[in-house]
Amino acid sequence: MTFDLQTLTELSTLEHLVSTQGVEALLAAFDTALVQTPADARVPKAEGPTVSARTLRLLRRAVELDADFLREHPEALFQSLYNRLRWYDAPDAAAHYDTQGPGPWENPDAHLHRLAALWRQQREAAGGAAWVESLRPLSGSLDGGDLSLSHDERVEAVAFSPCGKKLATTSSSDEKNIHLWDVATGKCLRVLEGHDIGEILGLAWSPDGRKLASGSRSHDARVWDVETGELLYDFPKQEGRVTSVAFSPDGKVLAVGNLGWRVHLFDMESGEKIRTLKGHQQSVLCVAFHPSGRQLASAASDDTVRIWDMTTGAQVASIATNATPRSIAFSPDGERLAYSVLEGVAIAETRHWTPVEGLWGRMGCGDIAWLGTTHLAMLAPREVLVLDAHTRDTVWSRTYYPSTAGNALAFSPDRKHFALTESTRVLVSEIHAQPPPTLKSQGQPVKDLLGAPEAACLIVKQSTQNSVVDARGQVREFSDSSMGGGQKSWSMNRDGTLAAFPIVNFHEEPRRRAIQLFDLVSLTPAKELTAKPLEGRDTASRMLQENVVAFSPDGALLAGTVELGVVRLWSIPEGRLLHTLKGPANPVTTLEFTPDGALLLTGLAEASHLLVHDVKTGALVHNTKVALKPTPTYAVATAAPRLAVGRSSGELALFELPTGTSRFIQVSNETVVAVAISSDGTRVAASDMDSCVHVYDATTGDELYQVPHPELPYTLAIEAPFLVTMSEDHHVRFFDLATGAPRADVEASTDPQDVIRRRYWEGLGDGPVAFHRRMDPTPFAHFQDAMEACYILRDGIAVGQGRTQKDFLYVLRIHEATSKA
């Protein structure tokens, strides 16, 4: 089949090609068509948009961004293309971006979103498989040469190889914390063993590109063979954390600066120390060789830059600075030395080490690099700058989102590309190119998701702001201060109109503790619920860190604590205190209403007690021992008044809530780790420290069968026809409830209660997130990123915290398969 501009903009062609021949064949087809398509070619599609060679380039880039995902899930091609194209040039995309020039939506040729809409119409008309729609733009640009290299932890240092084809990065991970990348493709070539402790700030390539030096917080510097990954030299027991490493121009000497005020020189043939340079009065922060190799410059927090003779080790000069210089760099001709000062970047002539009058850049500049002898590049707050080294005029700049832990910058030897660390990723891009629009959400990483499955909304805590995402996928922002700052013990009513959290009124004397209601419609604080503390009960601030707030199922009541071991029950409409429920003088760690709202369960982990109160009368129904650490070990039947409780003694207790009758089963001699009971109360399961799940007839107490697991099953759920378990090996397992026979094994993490109760449940792991229907171990759709956390709200809206794209906020809509019209 011939692939051209017309055929490669037909969804059916693309889907057939990727399903029969794979992603590589699809990319190759785009490459061939681009060679054969004139730049001015235009083909109007019968249904509306006109496509061009530019369309093919952007389509190819969209496939390239999701290539790894599509290799595993070629059926998701439409999903990937739609989510990329829909947000590329649609007018409503502009609100999600910061731009340094016109955005794609301002281009007269803006049509990709129209092509995406056309494909969606065609697909829905013909009938299509389930898919996942992104309701916000995804990370990764279709324009320009931006490359994003993702890491599991914060990136700290970055350096181009001498040929410019490779990039080295370090991360804050412990061990395996040095990565080597192919700059052209963005592929990770090798992960070096690295240092035992992360936070590697020193990084340098040897001039021949065969060795890489690194220095870390663990007071050591190491030299690696780039091709084999072998550790060549280890220089431990430095006087302090190693902050900077540099090879001499001939590659024979390695200079190592540390926080112990010293610079050590090592021979790269023998690995022996040559000498130690002493003279700084505080921490050495950076070192750099003169291009001739005859001098070495070092900068320290004693507010000096010192120059050393490499032959004798003598100090040649000392340049006083008005602040700690954090970066130094020699010009390629060796005639000038640039170094950071308080108000910007200063330059000294190296003939007499005399500072030149005036400054370059602006206050707070960090990393410095010379781009030839004519231009000086630097990392300014929120901006990468390239200045004329003589006139000091800015010739190019690019904004970025600053990381709270700092950013690092490097430039390729050919002076065409730069690499910038941004939290857990490295941005590699072309200098002087028009930067693509920057996602605003990239600068607001997700810190926490506060909500519940199938709720009407969810709260997203971010760096400097917070958001509410509702069941339509709409996102509304509000300030952190308006929701009680860092409080995590939140609860939300089912209709998504109110949230509650404990507060302390510090402006009152004595300090008054209360429960704050927060209006999720207006995003403003509502009424406070309070009560006079009981005499003799501690109101310690540690109380407020516990999960001690809960709404009743109908949202009319709120249970919460304002002092130690006491639960208050309020009527929300009137703000009236209904009951004061006293328990042991220990922190309340869990509060939970039964599904019918008739009873309130109060857990006190330190006392290993579970209290059951009647909501209407406030009467204590049960007071029983229970295992509550590390997680609560009890379960309530949803359609029958039966409570199952696990204990540290290995006992399983079954209580008939109306009558108070009980039955006790000895499961093990050790702690019962998890308990589950069927909704009708007829089956109960308990797991023990031997990684075995025992299933019993809850009426007779007879054991029906046992199910051994390879690792500890720490949470369980029962609903005919399945017993579902979640183990420490991150597997969700399905068993036949009647016989205990294994039925399915899903390598993912999720709550088994979600599996049996929710319309949709998510499987989280190291790979793309998988979406499942209730009680179904087979996923019906996938999304390209791994997730740290995910909640599926009502109507199939999923809100996730990215793992591959670290802490990225995803708002997704799950679409079921469509039947042919």
Tally of extended strands? 67
Termini separation comes to 29 Å
Query: Tell me, what is the CATH class of the domain at 487-625?
Result: Mainly Beta
Largest sheet: 4 strands, antiparallel
Strand content: 35-45%
CATH architectural designation of the domain at 487-625: 7 Propeller
Q: Averaged pLDDT, please?
A: 92
Q: What gyration radius follows from the Cα positions, in whole Å?
A: 31 Å
Helix fraction by DSSP (H/I, runs of at least 4): under 10%
Classification by helices and strands: mainly beta
Mind telling me the CATH superfamily name of the domain at 487-625? YVTN repeat-like/Quinoprotein amine dehydrogenase
Record keyword descriptors for this entry.
821 residues; mainly beta; Methylamine Dehydrogenase, Chain H; four-stranded antiparallel sheet; 67 strands
Walkthrough of the structure:
- The protein has about 800 residues and is mainly beta.
- Among the domains are: about 120 residues, no CATH class; about 140 residues, Methylamine Dehydrogenase, Chain H, CATH 2.130.10.
- Strand 27 and strand 28 form a beta hairpin.
- The two termini are about 30 Å apart.
- About 0% of the residues have low confidence.
